[in-house]
Amino acid sequence: MTDINKPLLGDIRVIELATMVFAPSACVVLADFGAEVIKVEPLNGGDLNREYHKLPGMPISDLPYTFQMDNRNKKSIALNLKSEKGYEALCKLLAEADVFVSNLRPKALARLKLDFESLQTINPRLIAATATGYGEHGEEKDKPGYDNVCYWSRSGIDQHVFPYESWLNAFPFGAGDHPSGMSLFAAIMTGLYQRKETGKGCKVSTSLLANGAWANATMLQAQLCDATFQQKRPRAQAYNFTNLHYRSKDNRLLRLGIVNLDKDWEAFCQAIARPDLIDDTRFADDEGRAENMPLLISQIDQAFAAYDMSHWQKTFDKYDMPYAVLPTYEEAANDQQKEDNDIIVPLSHPRYGQIRTINSPFEVSGYQKSKPTAAPLLGEHSREVLSELGYSDDEINQLIEEGITQGG
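^ that's the sequence the OP posted. Answer follows.
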């Protein structure tokens, strides 16, 4: 029988040399399922994401929520990898590890002697996972890249929704990094499976560029098939009413999500109290609706404006229609359906008390995830990790004095 108290990945050790969101978000999923994740950070500041909650325009909080989200259940060791002793300590960690995860650019990894060939000499069973902005080949492989440029813009998604007013109102912080991190997690698990079959380590990788293309694959495939793209229209003249936002009497917005009009047209007309539209020759079939879409949108707008949102929620639930009320962030964070499905879970923080956090987005039957913990302070586990590698207290103190490590 499966031991529910045994972590699913409890025998996996991960060394993370990464910053910001993309690669750390993959490692936090590994940690959620019990892997020991040791985060290697530079001295005097650590991961840049420790301070990114302070970016102009971000929600204001003393709690470093951007860092907390992607670094729970990890250990932190601070190392100066440009020093011989720091590199030696990292090599000792890697020699006993199962997975190495990094989002350093290929040129930087080679300079630090952490490219795949070098890693193979340190530990031939190591899974080397690389997260890049633009991939590992081509002229742009060493360009700096984040999700706003690699994922959203280069994929075509950005121009699909353009124009908009500001970056914060377009795509939220990390919204391209987190799905890309799930791809990296999948690549790591596939690499571990291959090692199980072959006994040998391997290299796995993914990029923001690849994940952005995958996210927008349908539209890119249309272009690859030389499809003719239709001109953008204002909402009042949209091509289809089924995926628009509608405003209620109390000024709330509802997003429709109807995909099967053959099935749902009559029910929709009943729901908005316009049964007369069902057999109206202007709207009764796809051809008529397409020809008269601006008029139809106007009719639906008037219907929605007649009642408060509570009425529309009850009505659309009654008619089993797909929809969503656009929530405020307060409503989105306190969504009962998220609570019921452990999408939002409690976290006991030693400094900030009882808070909640976002769970990783899947479950495995028979195993419980690790309870989320506070993200580590910079170098919080330096002494513990170095001691486990065989360093004496005197040697660790000497490394601290020499600026090779800090914290602990």
